[in-house]
Design brief:
single chain, 4 strands, 72 residues, two-stranded antiparallel ribbon, 2 domains, 2 helices, C2H2-type domain-containing protein, elongated, alpha+beta, binds zinc ion
Length: 72
Amino acid sequence: MDGCLFTDTSPFKCFRCGRGYSVQYTLERHLRYECGVAKQFSCEVCLRKFSRRDILRNHEKKFSHHSSHSTV
Ligand SMILES: [Zn+2]
Ligand SMILES: [Zn+2]
């Protein structure tokens, strides 16, 4: 009865940020690459930083400012 908002069925909880994961591997990956880890992958264009390279890749795909400086 502590008004917990995290009522999902994820048995693996991150002890740092409280995020829940259904698979232990995902939690371990979160702890290793996301939670409390310095974001080491930065976008050279907009200087945003990301914790994982695939997230940076996703960002580069999402925002087309990397491919061309076309329409403003
Ligand atoms: Zn965490
Ligand atoms: Zn960018």
